[in-house]
Design brief:
Blueprint (H helix, E strand, L loop, with lengths): L1 H19 L2 H17 L1 H8 L5 H12 L5 H12 L6 H15 L15 H9 L11
Helix pairs in contact: 1-5, 1-6, 2-6, 4-5
């Protein structure tokens, strides 16, 4: 069920991002949003608390994210809370991020070497990548 929820909401956010031509901006915002929820379990727990009503949860969302995220993302968070899907925020974010990566043809490459690469070898590898020139773990 969680996969279906994340797909439905993730696709809806992606379609909205396309329509508003905000794919890149929402991509960055959603990555940051996901980090907030991963790093702040108290916030996630507060939003999952069944004793707290939807209006109060939306107030919390407004207080935490108001003025810090776009109107598009704020509206989306409000809908998630209204529909009682706040427990799935991380999965929805993950789905959206992966959808944008697929749309923009962004992949991740990992290089493993038995010996440390020389700077010129790293430069050659980076030159072969089309998008993000990030080399990690080398």
């Amino acid at each position: 069920m969680a996969k279906l929820v994340s797909k439905v909401y993730g696709d809806a956010l992606f379609e909205e991002a396309l329509e508003r031509q905000e794919v890149d901006a929402l991509f960055e915002e959603v990555k940051s949003l996901q980090a907030v929820f991963v790093n702040n379990q108290d916030l996630a727990g507060l939003l999952d608390n069944p004793k707290i009503g939807k209006e109060e949860k939306n107030g919390i969302i407004q207080e935490v994210f108001g003025g810090r995220v776009s109107e598009t993302l704020m509206g989306f968070l409000t809908v998630i809370v209204e529909k009682g899907r706040q427990k799935e925020i991380n999965a929805i974010c993950e789905y959206f991020i992966n959808t944008v990566k697929e749309y923009k043809k962004i992949g991740v490459a990992y290089v493993t070497s038995a010996v440390e690469l020389k700077e010129e070898q790293k430069a050659q590898l980076l030159g072969k990548t089309a998008w993000h020139n990030q080399l990690s773990g080398v």
